[in-house]
């Protein structure tokens, strides 16, 4: 799999903070209820913190009470890449940025949230950067 933005590991390490690198490039998960966007309700666009690709918007963000920013749909279906993840003894669907391959979080389905898709894109705050709409 090759991505439009394809940098050597050393470059990612230099460009990202250690915490950003651990999540985006090593698929770590930030602790629940600690991310800066968990409860954010500001209107705007959430972009990939590694490459700047637009991934999610505030219009599909909802309160899941799970401790991470949750969206019921990406901005564009092509903006994210979904990969089966069998780590930690579970079968989950990993969500990556389709432009640079960075880890964003996981998507869960059929949990019964009252959203149009019944999907929950559970995304690490540290993988995202919010650009708020100018009034
Ligand atoms: Zn990216």
Topology (SSEs and partners):
Elements: H1 9-15, H2 18-24, E1 44-48, E2 54-57, E3 61-62, E4 70-71, E5 80-85, E6 92-97, E7 103-109, E8 119-123, E9 128-132
Antiparallel strand pairs: 1-2, 1-9, 3-4, 4-8, 5-6, 6-7, 7-8
Residues 48, 50-51, 53, 97, 99-100, 102 line the site of zinc ion.
List its salient traits.
2 helices; three-stranded antiparallel beta sheet; six-stranded antiparallel beta sheet; 9 strands; 135 residues; binds zinc ion; 31% strand; Metal Binding Protein, Guanine Nucleotide Exchange Factor, Chain A
Provide the gyration radius in Å.
14 Å
Uncertain residue segments = none
Q: What's the pLDDT, averaged over the residues?
A: 96
What small molecules does this complex bind? zinc ion
Task: Give the helices and strands as they follow along the chain.
Answer: HHEEEEEEEEE
Domain MsrB: 9-133
EC number: 1.8.4.12
Enzyme class: oxidoreductase
Catalytic activity: L-methionyl-[protein] + [thioredoxin]-disulfide + H2O = L-methionyl-(R)-S-oxide-[protein] + [thioredoxin]-dithiol
Structure description:
This protein is mainly β and 135 residues long. The chain has a single domain, classed as Metal Binding Protein, Guanine Nucleotide Exchange Factor, Chain A (Beta Complex). Helices cover 10% and strands 31% of the residues. It is built from two helices and nine strands. It has helices spanning 9-15, 18-24; strands spanning 44-48, 54-57, 61-62, 70-71, 80-85, 92-97, 103-109, 119-123, 128-132. Strands 3-4-8-7-6-5 form a six-stranded antiparallel beta sheet, with no helix packed on it. A hairpin with a 5-residue loop joins strand 6 (92-97) and strand 7 (103-109). The longest helix has 7 residues, at 9-15. It is globular and about 40 Å long. It binds zinc ion. Zinc ion (ZN) is lined by residues 48, 50-51, 53, 97, 99-100, 102. It comes from Streptomyces coacervatus. Its EC number is 1.8.4.12. This is peptide-methionine (R)-S-oxide reductase. Keywords: Oxidoreductase.
């Amino acid at each position: 799999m090759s991505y439009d933005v394809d940098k050597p590991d050393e470059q990612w390490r230099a460009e990202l903070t250690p915490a950003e690198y651990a999540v985006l490039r090593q698929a770590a998960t930030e602790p629940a209820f600690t991310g800066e966007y968990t409860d954010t309700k500001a209107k705007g666009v959430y972009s990939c913190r590694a490459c700047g690709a637009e991934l999610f918007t505030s219009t599909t963000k909802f309160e899941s009470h799970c401790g991470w920013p949750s969206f019921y749909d990406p901005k564009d279906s092509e903006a994210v890449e979904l990969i089966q993840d069998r780590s930690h003894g579970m079968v989950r669907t990993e969500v990556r940025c389709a432009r640079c391959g960075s880890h964003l979080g996981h998507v869960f389905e059929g949990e019964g949230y009252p959203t149009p898709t019944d999907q929950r894109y559970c995304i690490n705050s540290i993988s995202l950067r919010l650009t708020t709409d100018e009034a």
